[in-house]
Each structure stands twice: as structure tokens, then as C-alpha cells.
Amino acid sequence: MTIVEKEAARIRIAKRIAQELEEMPKPLFANLGVGIPTMVPEYIKSEEVYIQAENGILGVGPPAAPGKEDRNLIDAGRRPITERKGCSYFDSATSFGMIRGGHIDVTVIGALEVDQEGNIANWIIPNGKQLGVGGAMDLVTGAKSVIVAMTHTTGDGKSKILSRCTLPITGYGALDLLVTELAVMRFVEGKLVLEEIAPEITLDELRQLTDARFHVANDLKVMKD
Amino acid sequence: MPIDCKKLKSIKEAISLIKPGARIMVGGFGNAGVPNMLIEALTESGARDLTIISNDLGSPGVGLGKLLRNKQVKGVIGSYFNWNPEVAEAFNNGEIEVTLIPQGTMAEAIRAAGVGIPAFYTPTGVGTELAKGKETKTFNGKECVLQEAIGADFSLIKAHKSDELGNLVYYKTARNFNPLMAMGAVVTIAEVDEIVPTGSLDPECIVTPHIFVDILCLGR
Description:
The complex is a heterodimer of chains A (about 220) and B (about 220).
Chain A: H1 6-23, E1 28-32, E2 49-53, E3 57-63, E4 81-89, H2 92-100, E5 106-109, E6 113-115, E7 120-121, H3 136-142, E8 145-149, E9 161-162, E10 177-179, E11 183-188, E12 191-197, H4 203-208, E13 215-222
Parallel strand pairs in A: 1-2, 1-5, 5-8, 6-9, 8-10, 12-13
Antiparallel strand pairs in A: 2-3, 3-4, 6-7, 10-11, 11-12
Chain B: H1 11-15, E1 23-26, H2 36-45, E2 50-53, H3 64-69, E3 73-78, H4 85-92, E4 97-100, H5 103-114, E5 119-122, E6 136-139, E7 142-148, E8 152-163, E9 168-169, H6 178-184, E10 185-196, E11 215-218
Parallel strand pairs in B: 1-2, 1-8, 2-3, 3-4, 8-10, 10-11
Antiparallel strand pairs in B: 5-7, 6-7, 8-9
């Protein structure tokens, strides 16, 4: 059963995270993972959100136009990008110094699973075909705030928000905010708290689609598109 | 004015210094900042049993992917091999050893090797599979993992311009691991697009001082 169609779900998640970034203090330094997170800047109006990519640039501009790609100007997902005015380049140690050193305010990442302990699993599915961690562990450890952007369930309808992650963990207790197409949950004082719910479903239906135990905010709101 | 560069060697001559079994760092992230001409020559040299230290191993048959296909690689140390599924394949077949390290930890470990720091503690990866078997210690209530420096016999790096002494400047996101690897190996071989007269690079803009560069090769 599809509650929100796939592309609409991705856009809803990206817009909601853009709103979150708009509300954070400025200037804001953000690192964006691959997938839904890279859609977020499209919905940000503030001039003071600066995007860092861990391969060594602060001040990522929009994607390069077709035919204008420079193979030596890419983001961490190897996408051809452009420079924003005032951008700078640096080596990988400096880049991760920004991340690990707590200078990056927020990272927006995708995840395979999160759980009610705030654990995030996003680096590997142990099937023998993947051998990569990249900057995932550095980001969830070092960024001041960690926002997870993911669809609520797997392709076959299983909850990705669990009581305990089943996949190898990227960061323990690293989660701050989780945005899916069906819910906005904040990890506060060791608890998952539902703050917003999609207009298409009831709280009972959300509980059925969510394995994790979560609390409900007193002023529960409805998500907007 | 003719270029007077004592460090300039042909690519073939530079690569001939690398013997089988060598431990080699190679710069680059994806396809950006990869010393492709040096890798090409290393593939042609046929030197085997190499340990490669690099963020990734390129794509199948591309960049460092060539060395892997040519069965010259004994082990790899890096952070992200998902762009080249042949790495996992070779690992699963028992053909190569693979050490995965979080990207930031790897960058710092290479830097550490170059700056005389044998090991350091980092909060990254605590409690995860990648920290298994590593010592931990708590600082200010935060548990950290001990990571040893990662050095090498050679580093093959890519820079944009060099002066005749070997002072290097880079180009956009082609910088990545290259300046760190220039410091982290016993012998650093830099592939550059251009060599310009000493004095023509703004000293304030030089990223890698020539003390870290042993051999220069023209990459085009």
C-alpha cells in the first residue's frame, strides 16, 4: 500500500528539512548526504546556509548545467557541481576537521534504519557486495546536529524505524531529527518524540507502520506540503 | 625562459623506482585529482603485490581499478569502494585484503604519518564494526578510538601546477587527499599539468611546500 507516492514523498521530506534549516541560527554550515538530502537546497531561501562537501569544498553551488561539467569540481556523491561566490577548497584532513571539530552545524543524511535509542544504520548492508563507509561515521559523530531523511518504510512496506537497528550501526545515539513522508520525530533526552504526522494517516495507523516505541508531543501537528 | 627543474623525471623513470611489494598512497576522490598517468605507468610496469592506500579504487577498469584488474594489488586501505564493485568481488574471492577506515580518520592518519604523530584518538566510529580490536580511551566523558598513523613507501599525487622547486598548487576539488599524501610517504611523486618558473606562484597560495615533493612528472 502506497500512502504517499515516491517522488511526492521525497519532495515532502526535502521541503520539511529545508524548513528546519531555515529555522536554525545563521550563518548555518550544512553537509548533505546523497539522495533526498541533495534536494534540500532547492527549497532554501536563506542566503546564509553554506553547504560543505567532505571531498573539500565549502560553498557548494547548484549542480553544473549539462555540458558545463568540470570533472575536478564534484561533490562527495561525485556529482558535478558549481562554485558559490565566496567558496573555498581544502584538503580532506581540513574538511573532516570541520566535521569532527564541531564546526559543521548540521548534517542531513539518508539512512537504512534508525531506532528508538537514536542509533543510525546507514553505511552497509552485509551482503558481501558493499565495502564502503566514506564519511558517514565522521559526519554522525562530528556534526552538531544530525537530521535523517528517509522514507518511512522499505519497498515492501517494512518499518525502517525500529526498536533496535538490525544493520551495522554508523553512530550510536547520533540522531537529532528524523523526517519521513509520514512523520517528523525528534530525539530528545533519549526518547523519540513524534512532533508531526502526515495528513493521510491516523496516529494508530502510524503506530502500525512504526516498529519503534515513540512518544507523542502535546502539540502534535499535521505535516504540510 | 627554459624550465630548470632538477626534480623532473619522465613518468616511466619515476615509476621504475617502485618495486613489487611496495606500499603506495594514491591521491584522488572519485575521478577528481587522480594521478592517472602515473597509475597507467604503474599498470604497465606490472609491479605486483602492491598495497594501495587510497580513498577509493576508482571505477571498474578506471583509475586504480586498472591495477586491480591487472592483479597487481595485494591489499587496499581506504574508505569507500562501492564505486568499484570489483573490490568487494576480489575481497570475497580471497584475492586481496581490504581495510576500511572512516574517511576522516583515514585523512588524519595519513597526515599524522607525515607530521611525526604515531597515533591519535578520535571519537569517530566508537562501538562500530570498524573500531573492533582497536584500543579505546575516554576523554572528558567521550569515548575515543586509537588510530595509528598510515604511512607509505611512495605517494603518487596529482597537482595542477608546480614551480621548478616543486611547490604545488591544486585545482578545485582535485585537491582532496593529495596534499596529505605528499607529506605521508617516504618518496612523493607528483603528476602536474604544468611546471612554471620559480617565483611565479604567489607564495601565499602554495598549498604543498616543495620540501614534501621528491619527483615531478608532467601529466600532459
